[in-house]
Design brief:
globular; five-stranded mixed sheet; mainly beta; 53% strand; 43 strands; 26-stranded antiparallel sheet; 805 residues
């Protein structure tokens, strides 16, 4: 097969095809250039009135008939829009924003209806649940690599606790990969070349092994790309580099007409270089100044040395401000991830009206990463560095995790009643540790303290939960349906903390937990903590299909997000939060399906809302989680698609959000002081919108499509409590409050008789160069970093399908 692929790629002249297409378009008549079958023509021109089939409510339903706010993308739509990572779906989904985690490039942070987690540690839960082929992924390390060979993506908004369990107070995201099927041999091969030496190859092959009984599908992707920035010191390329290999296998077995067994497994390997950081501001600080003086070979106790050190740091800031794409980091960065996942789905029809389904999941990953978090050529702060010592603990990856989940549900119909009952259990174990070298020479030389290396070691993390649930529909008439659901969740969490400071000169450890004892083994610092949390989730809704094309609905639901532990300070566990939401919505297919609208308005009220604050603890800033008393969010979302003319599709989305703390008398500010934040508004951007247009037309045996997508988000609106008052206002405006608008462009040329598509594309086509706020100043002083975001990316891709794929 490899020789065939090489022959296909080598045999295609892209420029020749493009030139030929122009001549065909000029010479062809309408009768020659378009299909004669009206239905086929409508489908090819984007007039297909069929809805995406989704499983948002654990059963197959038409998207336009589901009384829930859902954005869905079919596999074809994903290809048209060029979505190839988790970061891309936020550009097309109202109410959803996706960003790379500042703690690990291989992870992502989802913000849905104003809810996001500031930490990715194993002891923190996310407010947006992620599910891959029905299996819950509470840790989304490596998720972006899975965005290929997908059947669809579903984004469910608002609390989804009844069917999806805890930690879905913001919503849930379903990724559904393509299954093996019984349509014979078919598949595709895809190759993409882009700037920054981007090389992306993926493909899939489906084989029917036994007629209508057994089929297999295998898909693969390899993506390499240089970073869009470099280090002047190490020469390493950083920022957005890619080095990913992903293999996914699917096996479908249907031994009888009422028994279906689906097995999926994947293997992922990532070797990347972390983010691109540049210093944008420096606040003089004795510890940092003296460390730089030592690095310059000067006496750190002399005033002249401090003056020289501050001048050197200001010079670093000047360079970081003048050039976003060149950094002075002096240590090699890396972000390595290895993951294995397995999902098994067994469905059995007990009768025509009753079915049982089992969904079993297993995932194991380890992530090791190192980042230079001062962004300079000096040795101020290195995160994730290896530490010496006879008892350095643990001698394995920075983060490792093992998860097992099991869901069992029973569904059926009885007259006007459609019912579902089920149960769920999960068992997660892992370790989450880091080592920080923070101005180590200054601590040793000036302070005379041998304990120069900070180690945060959290081992034996357990997150176990179980739940039982039910959700039922009652059809009051052909048009009106009532839905009610209830779920009970109970979870147990625990960990052992070994936080310490290590002295390379003596080989001893000083505990940094509830004890400051000096020990020979960090296990002697162990502090074990356990906690149990429980909560109820429920839903009640009514929907009215007032016409065949218009659905109105109203619902009220409550979700539950589990409590947990901070891992850096030894603090009491933070408590679960509850979110209760009222939502009304309308879904319409008007003008014979040429106009589609999805509109929703909601109010969410929180009790015990989990909030994080960045506060100084000792020499460093750390994250401390507390519970706000009460808060609320109000917002609305709209998604509209119009096809006003043959081949032309116009679309747009808009989302508005306004969050406020109704009562938060014990909030923490940046100085770790308790203040009353009651009445304070959330920092979330209030407005986001997207616009998209696609025009496609026919040439003989070819289809040409042009697409433009514009996404815009208002800047964040942090209150003074959340802003570092030492930072210049202009810098906060630039890195935090600035609006961001991005344009993506795409041109497709499809040779239908050969099932070949060639595409030219550009993301961030206007080449907007911008940064966002990065790591905060350690210990109240030192450099403030900014993270450089992706500039314009462009390239060309080739896809060859075969067997009717």
């Amino acid at each position: 097969m490899g020789s065939k692929i090489v022959a296909l790629v080598a045999g295609c002249s892209i420029f020749g095809l493009a030139g030929g297409g122009q001549a065909w378009a000029q010479d062809a008549s309408p009768a020659d250039s378009a299909p004669t079958d009206a239905g086929a023509r409508a489908d090819q021109y984007g007039y297909d009135s069929q809805d995406i089939v989704v499983t948002a409510r654990k059963r197959e339903e038409s998207l336009s008939k589901v009384p829930v706010a859902v954005s869905a993308f079919s596999g074809a739509k994903l290809e048209e829009t060029g979505i190839k990572s988790a970061l891309d779906i936020g550009n097309f989904t109202p109410g959803l924003r996706v960003a790379q985690s500042l703690q690990a490039d291989s992870s992502a942070v989802f913000t849905l209806r104003g809810q996001a987690a500031s930490e990715i540690q194993l002891t923190f839960d996310q407010p947006v649940g992620v599910y891959v082929d029905g299996v819950n992924y509470p840790r989304v390390y490596g998720l972006s690599a899975a965005f290929f060979d997908l059947d669809r993506i579903e984004v469910l908004k608002g609390p989804q606790g009844t069917l999806y369990g805890r930690n879905t107070t913001g919503g849930a995201i379903n990724l559904v990969s393509k299954n093996a099927d019984y349509d014979g041999e078919h598949g595709y091969i895809f190759a993409e070349l882009g700037n920054h030496a981007s090389r992306r190859v993926n493909g899939a092959m489906n084989v029917e092994l036994v007629d209508d009984k057994l089929a297999a599908r295998i898909a693969f992707q390899n993506w390499t790309r240089d970073g869009y920035g470099t280090s002047r010191i190490t020469g390493q390329d950083v920022g957005g580099n890619k080095n990913q290999t992903y293999i996914r296998g699917s096996l479908q077995f249907d031994p009888t007409s009422n028994l279906s067994i689906g097995l999926k497994a994947d293997v992922l390997r990532i070797r990347e270089n972390g983010p691109l950081l540049t210093p944008r501001f420096y606040l003089p600080m004795t510890n940092a100044d003296q460390q730089v003086a030592i690095d310059l070979g000067l006496d750190p106790t002399l005033p002249a040395s401090i003056t020289a050190a501050r001048a050197a740091l200001q010079d670093a800031v000047n360079r970081g401000t003048a050039d976003f794409f060149t950094s002075d980091i002096n240590d090699k960065q890396f972000d390595d991830l290895d993951a294995v996942s397995v999902g098994l789905t067994i469905a059995y029809d007990i009768s025509d009206a009753v079915s049982i389904k089992s969904i079993s999941g297993f995932r194991r990953f380890k992530n090791d990463r190192q980042m230079d978090l001062d962004g300079t050529r000096f040795n101020l702060l290195l995160y994730g560095a290896d530490s010496p010592g006879p008892n350095y603990f643990p001698p394995y990856a920075l983060v490792k995790d093992r998860l097992f989940t099991q869901e069992l549900n029973l569904t059926g119909e009885a007259g006007p009643l459609t019912w579902l009952v089920g149960g769920f259990v999960s068992d997660e174990k892992g370790d989450d540790s880091s080592t920080n070298n923070l101005w180590a020479d200054q601590i040793r030389v000036v302070q005379g303290n041998p304990y120069t290396i900070n180690q945060t070691h959290v081992i034996d993390i357990i997150n176990r939960s179980w739940s039982i649930f039910t959700q039922n529909d009652v059809r009051l008439s052909d048009r009106i349906t009532l839905t009610g659901g209830l779920r009970y969740n109970r979870e147990t969490k625990g960990l052992t903390q070994l936080n310490n400071r290590f002295a390379p000169s003596t080989g001893l450890y000083q505990c940094n937990t509830t004890s400051t004892a000096v020990v020979t083994d960090p296990m002697q610092c162990a502090v074990t903590r356990r906690a149990t949390f429980e909560g109820w989730s429920w839903l009640a809704s009514i929907s009215n299909q007032i016409t065949d094309d218009v659905l109105l609905y109203a619902k009220i639901s409550q979700g539950f997000k589990g409590g947990g532990f901070d891992t850096r300070p030894i603090a009491p566990p933070f408590q679960p939060e509850k979110a209760r939401e009222i939502e009304v919505g309308m879904k319409g297919r008007l003008l014979d399906g040429l106009l589609r609208t999805n509109i929703a308005a909601y109010t969410t009220r929180y009790s015990n809302k989990q909030e994080t604050a960045i506060v100084p603890v000792g020499n460093v800033n750390t994250v401390l989680t507390t519970n706000a008393a009460r808060a609320r969010i109000r917002g609305f979302e709209a998604d509209v698609t119009l096809q006003p003319a043959q081949g032309l599709s116009l679309g747009g989305t808009v989302a508005y959000l306004d969050g406020k703390y109704n009562s938060y008398p014990t909030a923490l500010n940046r100085l770790n002081q308790v203040v009353d934040a009651s009445g304070e508004h959330f920092p979330n951007p209030p407005w986001t919108y997207t616009l998209n247009a696609r025009y496609q037309f026919f040439a003989p045996n070819a289809r040409i499509a042009m697409q433009a997508d514009w996404s815009w988000a208002a800047g964040a609106r942090p209150t003074p409590r959340l802003v570092d008052q030492a930072l210049p206002v202009a810098l906060v405006d630039e890195l935090v409050r600035s609006d961001v608008g991005l344009l993506n462009l795409r041109l497709d040329y499809t040779i239908e008789s050969a099932d070949v598509t060639i595409a030219l594309f550009a993301t961030n086509a206007l080449n907007k160069k911008y940064q966002i706020l990065g790591s905060t100043r350690a210990g109240g002083g030192g450099p403030q970093l900014a993270v450089t975001r992706e500039p314009r990316m462009f390239g060309i891709s080739f896809r060859k399908s075969f067997g009717g794929e």
